[in-house]
């Protein structure tokens, strides 16, 4: 089981390291999202570049690379602690992809995929939070931060097992760290729309 868990862990990180935004942009003849807009290789920046189909594919791909490793770990009956580590490996792969110089995205869609695999109800609550906050603010980074910061509280409220709560909290802290530029912009220029 240790070998199986290790292999799934490695698979999760490598799959997470596939930067969907960059791959989709290259296949569709679009500019590298790292050099355009906010410079973030994520669905929101791809959408900002004016291609809804590419943005949708990026969102789907980033979510699936969080979901699939978790489902694989469950299928192979990896212990719950191992599933939580697999989830974090996929998430870290997106943030720090080995295939793209460890310069990745901010992890929101991949975190959603991870949560769908670990705890679908928690993922639903995160989606609802994102939608509500985005409707009020029209700023994706604010919605993402709201969803991320409430996720551990929701995980605790749902009485999820400790490894899943810990994994959710770790993703929240990393998401906040990756959004530090957005947070700085929001606090210094509250009237200016920030980058996603």
Number of domains: 1
Shape: globular
What is the helix/strand order? Answer: HHHHHHHHHH
Number of helix segments? 10
Give the averaged pLDDT, no decimals. Answer: 92
Could you give the distance between the termini? 40 Å
Helix/sheet category? mainly alpha
Level of helix content? over 70%
**What value does the Rg take, in angstroms?**
16 Å
Which consecutive residue ranges, at least 5 long each, have pLDDT under 50? 192-196
Number of strands: 0
Largest sheet report = none
Proportion of β residues? under 5%
Summarize the structure.
Helix content is 72%, strand content 0%. The chain has 196 residues and is mainly α. The protein has one domain (2-188).
Overview of the structural elements:
This protein is mainly alpha-helical and 196 residues long. The chain has helices spanning 2-16, 20-27, 43-48, 52-75, 80-95, 108-118, 120-137, 140-157, 162-178, 180-188. 72% of the residues lie in helices and 0% in strands. The protein has one domain (2-188).
């Amino acid at each position: 089981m240790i070998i199986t868990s290790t292999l799934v862990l490695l698979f999760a990180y490598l799959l997470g390291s596939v930067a969907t935004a960059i791959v989709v942009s290259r296949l569709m003849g679009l500019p590298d999202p790292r050099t355009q807009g906010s410079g973030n290789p994520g669905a929101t920046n791809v959408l900002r570049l004016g291609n809804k189909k590419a943005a949708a594919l990026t969102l789907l791909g980033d979510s699936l690379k969080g979901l699939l490793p978790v489902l694989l770990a469950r299928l192979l009956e990896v212990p719950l602690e191992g599933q939580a580590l697999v989830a974090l490996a996929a998430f870290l792969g997106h943030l720090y992809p080995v295939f793209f110089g460890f310069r990745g995205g901010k992890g929101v869609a991949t975190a959603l995929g991870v949560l769908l695999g670990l705890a679908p109800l928690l993922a639903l609550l995160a989606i609802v939070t994102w939608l509500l906050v985005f409707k009020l603010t029209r700023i994706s980074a604010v919605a993402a931060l709201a969803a991320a910061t409430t996720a551990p509280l929701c995980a605790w409220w749902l009485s999820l097992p400790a490894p899943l709560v810990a994994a959710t909290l770790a993703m929240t802290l990393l998401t906040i760290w990756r959004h530090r530029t957005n947070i700085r912009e929001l606090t210094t220029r509250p009237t200016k729309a920030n980058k996603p």
